[in-house]
Automatic annotation (TrEMBL), chain A:
An MF annotation (GO) of this entry: ATP binding
Record-given protein name: Heme ABC transporter ATP-binding protein
Organism expressing this protein natively: Cereibacter changlensis JA139
SMART domains in alphabetical order: AAA (SM00382)
Similarity comment: family membership: Belongs to the ABC transporter superfamily.
From TrEMBL, chain B:
Domain of life: Bacteria
GO cellular component, one term: plasma membrane
Name of one Pfam family that matches: BPD_transp_2
Keyword set, alphabetical order: Cell membrane, Membrane, Transmembrane, Transmembrane helix
Molecular function GO labels: transmembrane transporter activity
Source taxonomy: Bacteria, Pseudomonadati, Pseudomonadota, Alphaproteobacteria, Rhodobacterales
Membrane topology label: Multi-pass membrane protein
Protein name stated in the entry: Sugar ABC transporter permease
Subcellular location: Cell membrane
Provenance organism: Cereibacter changlensis JA139
Membrane spanning stretches: 12-33, 53-75, 87-104, 110-128, 140-160, 202-221, 249-270, 302-323, 329-348
Automatic annotation (TrEMBL), chain C:
Protein name per its UniProtKB record: Nucleoside ABC transporter membrane protein
Organism: Cereibacter changlensis
GO molecular function: transmembrane transporter activity
Compartments it resides in: Cell membrane
PANTHER family: GUANOSINE ABC TRANSPORTER PERMEASE PROTEIN NUPQ, SUGAR ABC TRANSPORTER INTEGRAL MEMBRANE PROTEIN-RELATED
Chain ranges passing through the membrane: 12-30, 65-84, 91-113, 158-175, 205-231, 251-269, 281-304
First and last residue of the signal peptide: none
Amino acid sequence: MAAERQQGRQAAAAPDSLAIELRGISKSFGPVQANKDISIQVRRGSIHGIIGENGAGKSTLMSILYGFYRADAGEIYIGGRLTPIPDSQSAIRAGIGMVFQHFKLVQNFTVLENVILGAEEGRLLRPSLAKARKALADLAREYELEVDPDARIEDLSVGHQQRVEILKALYRQADILILDEPTGVLTPAEADHLFRILKGLREQGKTIILITHKLREIMEITDTVSVMRRGQMTATVQTAETSPEELAELMVGRKVLLRVDKAPAIPGRTVLKVENLRVRDENGVERLKGIDLTVRAGEILGIAGVAGNGQSELLEVLGGIARGAGSVQLNGVELDLSGKHSDGQSRRLQGIAHVPEDRQHLGMIMDFTAWENVAFGYHNEPEYQKNALLMDNEALREDTRRKMERFDVRPPDCTLAAKNFSGGNQQKLIVAREIERNPDLLLIGQPTRGVDIGAIEFIHKQILALRDAGKAVLLVSVELDEIMSLSDRIAVMFDGRIMGFRDPATTDERDLGLLMAGVDDVKGAA
Amino acid sequence: MQKMPPWADALLVPLLSLLIAFAISSVVIFAIGENPVEAMKLMVTGALGSSYGWGYTLYYATNFMFTGLAVAVAFHAGLFNIGGEGQASLGGLGVALVCLMVPWPHWSLALIGAVVCGALFGALWAALPAWLQAKRGSHIVITTIMFNFIAASLLNYLLVNMLRPVGSMDPATARFPAETNLPGLGEILGAVGIPFSTSTPANVSLFLALACCVLVWVLIWRTRLGYQIRAFGKSEKAAVYAGIRPVRITMYAMLISGGLAGMMAVNNVMGEANRLVLNSVEGAGFIGIAVALMGRSHPFGVFLAAILFGFLYQGGAELALWTKIPRELITVIQALVILFTGALDNMVRQPVEWLFARAGRGAK
Amino acid sequence: MDLTTVLQILDSTIRLGTPLLLACLAGLFSERAGIFDIGLEGKMLAAAFLSAAAAFVTGDVWLGVAAGIFAALLMSAIHGLASITFRGNQLISGVAINFLASGLTVLLGQYWFALGGRTPSLTGDARFAPITLWGAEALREVPVIGPIYYELISGHTALVYVAVAMVPLSAWLLYRTRFGLRLRAVGENPAAVDTAGVSVVGIRFAAVAICGVLTGLAGAYLATGLSAGFVKEMTAGRGYIALAALIFAKWRPWYALGATMLFGFLEAISNRYQNIDLGGIVIPVQFMQALPYILTVVILAGFVGKATPPRAGGEPYVKER
């Protein structure tokens, strides 16, 4: 059905009006097929969205187009001509520019130096720098792309750094600009600015490919949208002729469960009480600027917000990873925020469990076996000790087998290294480890990032079960849907502060979006 | 991706690396006009053909077990302790002081004192680089290199200016009292009826080294500290999440590492020389790197690799004695082993992985 | 202390500082490109040996220098293969190179010359002669300026002047040219260079090659300028002192000049005086010998001016999104 739609909807465009055509692109990483026989046509002078869940193969496809990876099979046509792209150099020559999700900038270089890097004129720098300075001034005027050319990258905000990436591409005369999840790190205002820039570029005849998993952005700015699912292109449609519901269905492959079935919350006593919590990062920048919140027993408090507004720091300071100042009480007992007991061990002993946002770098050791990971953070638990000196590895393996069975972790082999499990199964292992401790407070960040649909439902059910058992849950997620469907109350964070609290029953995405953008709370505190 | 089976990772790859290293060494021997096969025969008979040869082989191997374990423990914590040389020479200082200054009634008590003091001095010499790494982020590889040189200067000063007996021209301490002389391997084995040469430097420290291999294995794979050391070595960020304290683990791992290196002095200073001389370690600290790499940081691997290098050392000495090949051939072999088992590991590993992947696909 | 003594000490500072300077700049190019190099010692040693051997056989010191550079480049090639091509551990590779040079030089030296690892002494054109700069003889009698010019600035061997010239040259190459920009970028964020369509591997190999050439010069100077022939382990830790100087210099060319000359000065002092009596406090010579290492540890500890190494240093580059 998807294939029919593609043929039906996409007008048979004349070849010369196509900026890019990909035919039959396939790419495997070992046994994982990231791209399966993908074909796509991108019209010149359009904004073409590519949407799909995490891990659907969008970034791989674009990396192939940019010569970062080589496709196993398939052809690339640029402007109607077959153009092999074995490396980034060829992509640049073919007029393709790419803005990666993680910027490729040299932190201690100036903007100018970053812009000319790899596109220098001649062997000496001085003429190149002069030329780039002038070109940047022109580009700034033309597209609202103002940046101080002599500023060092490390001194620029994320939004400005992204502009430098766009400038890099334009300076190289790119006609086709690929942006990979460009708004993930931006504030709504910065995102709006970016969209204005992109529209301006389209008016000048540039072709833009926008990779995202956010439906709202697709609807707002694209002309055409292609949907990817599990490495395959499921459809390409005109944005004007589709709806978010239809796109969501195409992305996921069936009706999305926008609401999780749950019983009403029965909040009890206050478990977590946070007052005027402040955190500075290693550079001395204040990341949390006075947070006040409470979480009660039998309640899920969801923290919404654009990534990078202090949610990670909140989890880290509560989880004992980062140091902070202010007051945090758990069951009425003051927590040590900066002293000897502000570490993960003390927090666990006090009844806080933590499923971290960054599963692969924080939550587990990829080279450790499943059973070693189940002890991770709980390696001092008496039940895992044989005597004062030795750990009881057999008891640990037995416990792991039990947890793997209860949480349906596959394959159920506790001696397998963590890296050999899929993302969803890794997450289930972590959730099992943390929830099975029966903590008073569960901190859980991005519980379903990079997790397949089946595992998402399972993990959501586990979180709700913990709540229904009378425990407190602090949930951080950048997925508004997840926040809306799981939370009993919602707090919105912006720039290290809580902008307001909302009841999920009475709020909507628009209302939350305003708060996420830093617009002051006018509805009053909850 | 089809992964290699663990046995291939633990055995096949190091063995292949070793083979390549030996093949190149043979080419070197051939190039300097000698016969590699004859040289190998000479080395085997010289090092393993008699209990005399075995005695020397095991004496060297004892040194390398200590320094190899030292490097291995630090490796598990993700730290590259290149300062075994300095830590072992400080251990020598500790052993010398305790042997000279305490009137020991019996060697067994002296041994305990020397173990404690040697380990303590070695650990102390590792403590400052460890602390600087943990607290100030100073690269431990560079600081431990620097500490090797500082140790050399310090010992030079102490031996020349303070510890040298009056009237002696030799920059070395006085001989240790006879009560501190450790029983040799020949005596020990002779006591249980096994004939073994009594004129070799191998001594009771060999058993101490073997015990250390077992203890390090228990430490790394069976204790909480070992678990924390391994977790920290794999990912510091994750370790912090789990409540493992980086400063503490860095300190513990390096203190244990330095202590192991320092204990080497029981073998060479107390067991063999009976006095502390200049440059007593003679590069054993660096060989520890090769031994740990070769042994994949596993105590049993370290044990085997130490025996191998002990064999190379004794065999190399025999070569130098009977042929025109200088002892430095061993340095070349050692370099090649470090190169292929360490730095060029991927060069050996990738083809093996590829072969297994192919075989895996073929099976399906 | 009179002027003559001071001049003599400073003169030997320059002579002893020169190999450190060349090796330090060598390390600078490598590490600025993100390749840690603790194998400077081994490269210098290999170069010293082969330059002395070639100079002895051919009787031409410049052929000796060429051979020295060749030897150091071979070692660099191994380092590049291990740490760039096969993404191995750069530190371990460096350790291996140090041993390889230490063993091979004696092995080959014994095979070729049978002098226990030494090369025969170099005489005549087989070693560098001092160069008397223009006007040095004439100015010699002028008070103060004369002796300074004659003793200190004039009268060194060619490689000393080459080494000093390398400082502005390196600074220019690093900060004023396209190659320098790319080299520094590769050491900070190789992904930025890769996505800009420039080969990370190419730049890194170029840097490692430059490192080889400079360590080649350093080693050749040791055997044919500072001494007259090769002796076993003649580098005597200079590669590590150069490494220390590199940290001391915070990976910058002009600072490298200062750091290496300071360390050269310390060596000159400890060569000249057994113990230094500073008004009752006697500083033993061993302390002077250890001082470069102690100073480097202090700098590394960050109590006096933090030294931040290149961000991508020591990490093999692996493509990722």
